[in-house]
Amino acid sequence: MPFGVCKIGSVVRLEEMAMKIRKKTTKTYHCGVCKTGYPTPQEAENCEKYPVEQRVANIGDYVRISEKRECLMADPKIDPYYVAEGVITGFSPPLPFDMEYELKWLGGKRERLNSHVHLYYVRYTCPRCNEEREQSVFALEFTILKSKEKTASE
Fold first, then answer.
1. How many domains is the chain partitioned into structurally?
2. Structure letter (DSSP) for residue 72
3. Mean pLDDT of the residues in the chain
4. How far is residue 14 CA from its own chain's centroid?
5. Does some domain include residue 108?
6. Residue 56 lies inside a defined structural domain of this protein
7. Distances (CA, A) of 132 to 48, 81, 125
């Protein structure tokens, strides 16, 4: 039988030294819309009741992101700030609302508060260093410059 030293001068079997592992089981309840986990079924049901924001753009739409971006790779003689323009490459499934998004972009408009939202992925080329980048933005953070549907019908 293997032995181990536990205290100074006392010899104890390794079986006696084994730690007891406590397992804790937690139940998580998920929203059927955004799949976010909640500790109670009531919270998950409340989340499911929130509306889902309509998608305002499609993959392939050419957009301008409202907030200025900063290029840290740019020449120090050039202004590092720029407005990004690029193509939507995808979007997320509905996500739970984000407090910063609601306060900053929605301005507390009651009809739009507490709704599931989509993130849009925009691929663009930095005009300062010509590096290709991808940015995730909410619907109100960009303006559609050229819609794929409009160009296809022309």
1. 1
2. T
3. 81
4. 47
5. yes
6. no
7. 37, 16, 4
Q: Report the C-alpha gap between 5 and 26 in whole angstroms.
A: 37
Does residue 119 contact residue 105 with C-beta atoms inside 8 Å?
no
DSSP state string for 16-39: HHPPPPPP-----EE-TTT--EES
> Tens of pLDDT along 88-127?
999 999 988 777 777 776 666 666 667 888 999 999 999 8
For residue 103, tell me if it sits in a domain.
yes
71 SS3 class = coil
Return the pLDDT at 4.
46
C-alpha distances (whole Å) from 53 to each of 85, 95, 104, 119, 140 are 23, 10, 17, 11, 11
Domain around 141: 62-153
Does residue 49 fall inside a structural domain? no
Distance of CA 134 to the CA centre of its chain: 13
What's the rounded Cα separation, in Å, for the pair 119 and 100? Answer: 14
Structure tokens at 21: 């592992």
